[in-house]
Each structure stands twice: as structure tokens, then as C-alpha cells.
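Project outcomes to date are best conveyed with an example. Our students and postdoctoral researchers have been running inverse folding experiments weekly, and each run begins with a structure described purely in C-alpha cells. The record below, which covers 169 residues, was selected by the lab manager from last quarter's runs and is presented without edits.
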């Protein structure tokens, strides 16, 4: 019997514009997932650019942002795309949209939260909205990476994934 390396779980974060929340979630999980998770993000109607507020929030926390880009979810539904283990929607619009059929039947959950890109106000108020979204995503992803995803049954795991999305902190 040979020792096989642990499985790396592929996770896709979806949001309509793929410019803020899903981009931040991708970055956070790629950092805290410690190689156990590979995160991606996409949108149903991508803006085509990452929101400057998301970039600023990530840079503030020493994330590399050069390779981040706003892209369509279609990139993940074509042959040769990464096989997804989890798909999470992080905005209310994407939760109501008809998603592509993902090969391999990944587990999914809705982790909706307010859109910091929609906040109007002073630069400080906008920055605070992005900081709040970052904090919420980070908290949810800390819980996610500590779940025993490889050893828990699908029904229990689905219940826990749904619970993470209901947490409004």
C-alpha cells in the first residue's frame, strides 16, 4: 500500500460580477487552505475587472493581487476545467440564477452577504464595507477549512455548509 498525498479540494466562489466578494473569497481560501484547497472565482455576468476596493483590502493584508481577474463561470463548465468539489454563491443575485451543471456534482451552498461594491459614501465608508465583507468571508472560510471534509458524510457536510452561510457575523 502506498501513501497517497491528501486530496486537494477545488472550490469555486460565484457572484454575479466577480469583482469583489468572490475575488476576496478566492484569495482568502488560497491562503488559509494551506494546500488542502484550491480556490477559484467567477461570475455569471463578470464586470471584467476587479473592484479597486477589493484590491485595496487584499493588499492591506499582504495578498498578491496581480493575477486576480474577473471571469465568467463558463470557464469552469468546459472540458479541461478543474473538477469542482464545492461551489459557493456569495451574493444574492447568483443564488437565484440558473447555474451551469458542474461535472462531478460538487457540493454547493449559498453564503450571501452585502455587496461592498454597491456601497456609496465617503472613501472611509466604502473601505469599511470592504473590510466588513473581508472579515465575514474570512470567518466563514476559517470554519470551512476546519471541517473534516474528507471524513464526514455528505448529508452532515451539506448541513454544515448551509449553516456557515446562515452565520451573519
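After processing, the design step wrote out the following sequence:
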Amino acid at each position: 500500500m502506498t501513501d497517497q498525498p491528501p486530496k486537494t479540494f477545488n472550490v469555486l466562489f460565484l457572484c454575479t460580477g466577480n469583482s469583489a466578494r468572490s475575488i476576496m473569497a478566492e484569495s482568502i481560501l488560497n491562503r488559509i487552505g494551506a494546500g488542502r484547497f484550491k480556490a477559484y472565482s467567477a461570475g455569471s455576468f463578470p464586470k471584467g475587472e476587479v473592484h479597486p476596493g477589493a484590491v485595496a483590502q487584499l493588499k492591506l493584508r499582504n495578498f498578491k493581487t496581480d493575477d486576480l481577474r474577473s471571469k465568467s463561470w463558463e470557464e469552469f463548465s468546459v472540458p479541461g476545467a478543474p473538477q469542482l468539489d464545492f461551489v459557493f454563491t456569495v451574493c444574492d443575485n447568483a443564488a437565484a440564477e440558473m447555474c451551469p451543471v458542474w461535472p462531478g456534482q460538487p457540493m454547493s451552498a449559498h453564503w450571501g452577504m452585502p455587496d461592498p461594491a454597491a456601497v456609496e459614501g465617503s472613501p472611509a465608508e466604502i473601505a469599511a464595507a470592504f473590510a466588513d465583507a473581508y472579515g465575514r468571508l474570512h470567518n466563514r472560510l476559517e470554519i470551512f477549512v476546519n471541517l473534516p471534509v474528507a471524513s464526514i458524510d455528505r448529508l452532515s457536510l451539506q448541513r454544515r455548509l448551509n449553516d456557515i452561510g446562515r452565520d451573519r457575523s
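The beta strands are 9-14, 37-42, 86-89, 107-110. The two ends are 45 Å apart (CA to CA). The training component of this project remains on track.
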